[in-house]
Amino acid sequence: METVSLLIRNALVFNSYLKEFLPGDVYVREDKVYYIDREKQAPLRAENIVDAEGAYLIPGFVDIHMHIESSMMTPGPFGRFVASCGVTTIVSEPHEMANVRGIHGILEMIQAGEGAPIDIYYGIPSSVPSTNASLETTGGIIDCDAMKHLLEEKDVVCVGEIMNYRQIIQENHLEITKFLDYLRQEHPGYVIEGHCPSLVGLDLAKFLYLGIDGDHTEHTLEEIKQRFENGMFVEIQDKMLKPEVLDYIQAHQLYEYCAFVTDDTMADTLWSEGQLNRVVEKAIAAGFPLEQALYCASFTPSRRMHLYDRGVIAPGRLADFFLVDDPRQLQPKLVFKQGRMIFDRMTPLLPHTADHFPEDFYHSVQLPEITPDLFELPVSRFASGNPSSVTVRAIEVLPDRTQTREIQVSMPVRNGRIDWKNSGCLLAMVLERHGKYGNIGYGFLTGACHHHGTAATTYFHDHHNLFVAGDNEADMMLAVQRINAMQGGFVTAQNGTILEELALPVCGILSDGSVEEIGSKLCKIRNSLVALGYHHPNPIMSLGTLGLPVSPALKLTDRGLVDVKQGALVPLVVSTE
Fold this sequence. Notes:
The chain is α/β, with parallel strands linked by helices and 577 residues long. The protein is built from 15 helices and 29 strands.
């Protein structure tokens, strides 16, 4: 009698082609599915047998648009944890690490993920920096030659999200434009991911014409319609689980042209709620058909990335699958990767093992001397003459999105300094921390941000310079000094005291701790921001994107205030009196 390595007996097996569950026994030979026995009469003997006892067997989930760095974890521990969520393949786009350490950082991330129990593939960061050196200072740059080098890495499967979407559709000399030209000649059909919020009409057509045919960003229904109508593959993250969007997909049977993704999942959310399984659960609860939801978390993302050996339970395909008692509650009992069990709910997670990076990765925060005068605002720094008051641009944090709005605020000038204390604004600063120029960008913050105390971080998209915003200079200086001592992370402070902190010593954006350690500390940071008045469903992400100069409308970098639509620096002071 022929012998195989594994038998999953008495399961309800999800058939991706019929999009339904069928009873059967699944035989695995080595790392692939060998036979699905509906009649239970196969003349096969298995070395290992698992009785599913009527549980549902689902293909391993495939998350094709995400960033490991968003979890603030390193690849090995991240992979070990998301295995418990039924996720067996991810495609990570490491542009956060690239912004700090360039191609060296990407290669170290790839190496660190090699010991993970899941498959970790990578997208080539295409927008590092996200704009250009005149608008932001990064620690690393990915140029066309670096992209070509990464193309040859065995675990690289796509071009990561192209974020400078308004520049690329105009005449330009961008490095990514050179690389796209190279791909058209040498690698036609290569997968190219996009990032194009609000792009519609002719501009969207120009974007697609370049071969950039995937998008994952937040959209209105009209924007979603235009993407589907023009053949774009739509990747649906948590914040896009809107009734009108899900209804439109169902009404037009667009399941082949979309997939669920996570994009950014932070450690506290990861630990308490899960990863891609959480997004799929929410979609099902919102009325997305169960079978189609499972299909769009396994089959369609695999096809999008040309990973044809997975995403389905069928002979000859990788034996990547998981068992659940209830397919609407995607909490796996057992998870298998290539026929090997990598998670058992009845067994504690494997002991934490830290990834190790080169020594210089732990010394990446290089600031100029921190002195009290850096936090003062002499009006002469921003305007000429001797005005009695100034009108300034302020960043208004919106309560329901990471995009911001520009407002103008009048502030008096006293003793030659801008007096911002009673303006309803916080002072905000971005300090260049890559040891290059020592730039400091100044701005003001208002709206749904914290109203009291100080918050500081080096987890600041995408350039990851040091951001600090507070209601008094002494606390701001304290927070900056603490971030410097920790070599990166998050800090909240008030009345001369550090309230909460999370150290991120790996390039100032990652911790080599466990998900429990990072998640619990990040939760305290989140709660501290809320206690200080931050009014946003995700204050960590809101805070961390206040310097992202490709996300509308007004952002702050080490170079100063950036008008995102114009793609240009604008002065802090608008007018004087």
